[in-house]
Amino acid sequence: MTQISRSKGISGSARLDLLVSLLLIAAAIALPFMVDSRYVLGQIVLALFYATIASQWNLLFGFAGVFSLAQMAMFAFGGYVTAMICFYFGWNVWAALLPGALATVVFSLVVGLACLRLTGVYVALLTLAIAQTMYLLIVTDTECFTMVGSICRQFTGGAVGFARFGDLGTRALLKGQWLVGNYAIIATLFTVTMIVTYVIVKSPIGLAFKALKDNPGYAVARGVNRFQAQLLVFGISAFFTGLAGGFYAAHFQAIGPGILSMSQLMFIIAITVVGGVGTFWGPLVGTIVLVGADELMREMGEFRTLGLGLIIALSILLMPKGLVGRVGDLVRWLRHRNAAGPKTKLQENRAAAGE
Asked: Which pTM was predicted?
């Protein structure tokens, strides 16, 4: 009986996820026809990048328990490698995206190997140090690597970065509607990322990640290889994060060290926390809430940051599991109440009959 009820619960959850997915896909298709403002559509594209990065940080920390602070470094690495391949070798952006993502995987494995014997806050400190070192190496790169006309360019682009190295081809193909084309591409990237993440989370590999997060000692005793699992989740997360970085560079036709700022990293973490760490839909919900709130407070000047901080603080205090976690608790409570209702009524009838 228990196994049957569990299977029903799992299938019910899968059906709910499928229904939500179909609704979101329908909304994503309809969105360009409903939004006339180029600014709003541009902000939606940016929000999709945030949601993609947050979903992969959630996979890394929320599901696998690896508290890495190098997520924006992975994002920047993928963007820089894509831009540098196009700039130095003259490749088309589409041809450079996959090498950029694979290079990010290699970079993540190096980071993962450095973190193998560390846990918790020590992983966070080491990965943060790696990200900050990457930032310093870029901004302090002042040596001339090549001459572009009469301008001396640094290998990493220095504090200026790279610009106008290529785009996704939508400007030439769609002319004035190029932003809609880019939106469709980035929305597809986000959709594919979420599908792959869902499959991983629901697979035996995902169960191994969760086991290592919840009880590492027990998971290792049951045969889960912590080192292999940690490297695997680093690699998977880095691939999609680096790929998103390449698309980001191509969309904006520029990439610079500003992407590695601490504020960007904190915003990604805040998105995941507000939406719900360890929940599948948390990063998307958190992105909608925080990006939407940030836009609504755009004219508030210095109170804009204060307002975002207040939202994050209230979310942590009132909803430790995030918005999705709170909604999940509410749904379970309603199911329990509905299931207990008939039983309670039957007991009342028996009591009235003197049984």
From this structure: 0.90
